[in-house]
Design a protein that fits this description.
It is a single chain. With 247 residues, the chain is α+β, with helices and mostly antiparallel strands. It has 10 helices and 8 strands. The chain folds into 3 domains: 65 residues, no CATH class; 31 residues, no CATH class; 109 residues, no CATH class. Strand 2 and strand 3 form a beta hairpin. The relative contact order is 0.13.
Length: 247
């Protein structure tokens, strides 16, 4: 699991609960290391048709399962391809969007035991009392979230990223160390250009990225002033970048 509940577990020092979303983000590894050695993905077309999925843009698909909206996205860290989308060899209808983040989120996940609520148990035949799910680690979450913030430019991504950078148990410097460890482990890059570029956007306390973080924190109940929260974001970004440089 990448998003959803993850900030709740990662940002243990937060002054107020994280404002989550109503969706659940699950990541499934089906990928390949480079296009030349990729598998046959002709089965994807059959699976999409069987699941009732309709295409939005080739890499993003929607389906309705009962009362739940399901969105399926094909994402890929492949870099031996210059286009914005990567073909899935054998598939006639699906492609993958080229974006940094998924590989790092998959590496060394944290396994957590979650209690199945009484409401879910009442609606499910022979339900378990607990489920075990793998969550993206601190470094994996931040890399994936930074990639999302860069590509989607949504307010919630700007808020999520700084929330976890500031309020994880070790603060901004531990966030940077976790990112550095994740990059080395996945061999993505020895120079984390993308996340550095994203975090740089918070350095100006008067800027829009710090402003989005501050406004969302206040909107969800934080008693701090907007000016203080803007400064917190800017100082957190500076500490993160300084530590990332030394790491």
């Amino acid at each position: 699991m990448i998003g959803g509940l993850n900030p709740h577990f990662l940002a243990t020092r937060a002054p107020i609960p994280h404002q989550g979303t109503t969706d659940i983000d699950l990541l499934f590894a089906l990928g390949f290391d480079n296009i030349a050695d990729s598998s046959d993905f002709s089965w994807v077309d059959t699976a999409l048709a069987a699941g009732g999925f309709t295409s939005i843009n080739g890499w993003r698909w929607n389906a309705l399962r009962g009362n739940a909206q399901v969105r399926l996205e094909f994402l890929c860290d492949i870099w031996d391809h210059i286009g914005d989308t990567v073909p899935l060899p054998g598939s006639r209808s699906a492609v993958a969007s080229k974006i940094a983040g998924p590989a790092a989120a998959l590496h060394a996940p944290v396994e957590r035991q979650l209690v199945v609520s009484a409401r879910v148990r009442a609606d499910t035949p022979e339900p378990p009392e607990t489920v075990s799910l793998r969550f993206a680690s601190l470094g994996g979450y931040l890399l994936a979230k930074a990639a999302a913030a860069q590509s989607r430019m949504l307010a919630k991504d700007k808020y999520d990223l700084m929330y976890v950078i500031l309020y994880n148990e070790g603060g901004p410097r531990e966030a940077a160390r976790a990112v550095a460890r994740q990059l080395v482990a996945t061999m993505d890059s020895s120079d984390p250009v993308e996340i550095r570029r994203v975090v740089n956007r918070y350095l100006d306390p008067e800027g829009s990225w710090s402003g989005v973080f501050a406004e969302t924190m206040i909107g969800t109940g934080d008693s701090a002033t907007e000016d203080q929260l803007r400064v917190d974001a800017a100082e957190g970004a500076r500490s993160f970048l300084d530590e990332l440089e030394s790491a």
